């Protein structure tokens, strides 16, 4: 793993990996959503509204996955002080927030025809909403730290503390059962018919590739920012000496 | 040494101390409890049914106010560096600070909850539950407060940033604490106490790491 900690080596890999992930993610997502929206038959109970599943479920997984990525990168950064891990955590925050917001919005739109309400204070919805505010807090803290020149370990500590929420969201539908259904897909078995499951899994793959591509692109941008600042500082120092 | 540190922190944070702002959050707490009947009207039944939750929200908002004076001045004045030279770790210093912070606001908050309950026409049973819940939940609020104060100590984000960071972390305490009002058994209070214990155990390490990070830059 330490081999990848070298920013130069990382940039060499990221240069071709970023567009590969973004383009393949776009193609696979478009294919999965097209399949889900036009080829899958309407559900027996929910009718046409079931199609929002292909947008809702992958973004819910990635909303939670984003904070898991922040927590793991923050831990790696705090323990081994890998500078790239801190950039990875910061890179995962914005796409994680976007997917959480998509999940809440599509869930609300889906809830109106199937549950008869836009919003209900159920365990999973509430904890997803809390996750959204955690993302906003993390991004605000990371911005304040880079503006005021604080230590990048500060957002990492908040990322680890906030990870307490992830298992709560994951178990919430089991602990407090109300309107949101219990998990349909668990390790090794699925309550969803293959006709829905296969395009769903392809959509998850496509969204995950997109997520990875965005994180890499953000990391490259942050690295470039650091390099520019260092170069400007060196030039200013050189001008003073000369 | 630990005892003297605790007494110093307590003297600083108590009302009338050098940073004695802790009377202001309490007045703010009462002001919020007073605002609510203005906003929804003086219907005693409605107030009695929802007032317990309002007290919880007011307590949470009042917990945001003292955050910028809790840790930042000591970081600026190098108090933690001096303590570290004496062999007192940041973790220990912040655990002491957490205890002093709790003692400087929680007992007074419980006292202030009694007139607030009268303003919101709560009955004796609800007041008892509110007080027990706050007793179980305030250590957790104090812990989150010290943690957020340490994280934001070197930053110019101000109260808005602290509030944005504190609220999502405090939601579980609020859910279980305020949730205990509508339950006949004490399960909500027990869960709020459990979350408080987790936060109290976590805070010295998270806040200590934040102070060390701020020092090393």
Description:
The complex is a heterodimer of chains A (242) and B (217). Chain A is mainly α and 242 residues long. Chain A has a single domain, classed as Four Helix Bundle (Hemerythrin (Met), subunit A). Chain A has 7 helices and 2 strands, in the order H-H-H-H-H-H-E-E-H. Chain A has a two-stranded antiparallel ribbon with strand order 1-2. The longest helix of chain A is centred in the last third of the chain and has 48 residues, at 194-241. The radius of gyration of chain A is 21 Å and the shape is globular. The termini of chain A are far apart. By secondary structure, chain B is an all-alpha fold. Chain B has one domain. Chain B is 80% helix and 0% strand. Chain B has 9 helices and no strands. In chain B, helix 2 runs antiparallel to helix 3, helix 2 packs parallel to helix 6 and helix 3 (44-64) runs antiparallel to helix 6. Chain B is elongated, with a radius of gyration of 18 Å. The mean pLDDT of chain B is 87. Chains A and B meet through helix 4 and helix 5 of A and helix 8 and helix 9 of B.
Beta-strand percentage range of chain B: under 5%
What overall form of chain A do the CA principal axes indicate? globular
Sheet/helix structural class of chain B: mainly alpha
What percent of residues of chain A adopt helix (DSSP H or I)? over 70%
Order of helices and strands of chain A: HHHHHHEEH
Query: Main beta sheet of chain B, described?
Result: none
User: Could you name the ranges of chain B where pLDDT drops below 50 across 5 or more consecutive residues?
Assistant: none
Please state the oligomeric state of the protein chains shown.
heterodimer
How much helicity do the residues of chain B have? over 70%
Helices of chain B, by number, come to 9
Transmembrane segments (chain A): 21-40, 60-80, 92-111, 123-142, 154-176, 196-217
Organism (chain A): Allopontixanthobacter sediminis
Function (chain A): Required for the export of heme to the periplasm for the biogenesis of c-type cytochromes.
Domain Cytochrome c assembly protein (chain A): 16-180
